[in-house]
Design a protein that fits this description.
The protein is mainly α. It has helices spanning about 5-45, 50-70.
Length: about 140
């Protein structure tokens, strides 16, 4: 019978611990998101340390969920090393240089006016339709 397997009960204890830590991690991520937004609002760019902490915490959350859903037997931090953050470009609210914009449409594939859908009423439909009752306006016309 599987109910007497002590490894399963020990794993349940770890799962309860990591479930609690996962909720705390969600609160920490929320605080990082708010702090990063305030940094960008005030300085115009993000904070490198908060970005790296957020990336490490996101990787830890992923590892924890993999453990909790029985996709991985390796227990995440604090029973393993903290996930390593990879360098990333970051964010800046400075305007983008127009030289970086690349035109992807080739000249040979240029669209003609006839291939572009138009939602403008043509001249023929601008004419008002004749009224059936001899052209007398009705109330509300």
């Amino acid at each position: 019978m599987h109910m007497k397997n002590t490894n399963t009960w020990v794993r349940l204890a770890y799962m309860l611990l990591f479930g609690f830590l996962l909720n705390a991690g969600g609160l920490a991520i929320s605080a990082i998101v708010l702090a990063q937004f305030l940094f960008v609002l005030i300085t115009g760019k993000d904070n490198d340390n908060l970005r790296n902490l957020g990336q490490g915490l996101a990787k830890w959350v992923c590892q924890t969920i993999m453990f909790l859903t029985f996709n991985n037997e390796t227990k995440p931090f604090p029973f393993a090393e903290w996930p390593v953050a990879e360098s990333s470009q970051g964010y800046s609210s400075a305007p983008v240089d127009m030289e970086e914009v690349v035109d992807t449409q080739e000249e040979s594939e240029e669209l003609s006016d006839s291939s572009i859908p138009s939602f403008i009423v043509s001249d023929e439909s601008d004419k008002k339709p004749q009224k059936k009752d001899g052209g007398k306006p009705k109330k509300g016309d």
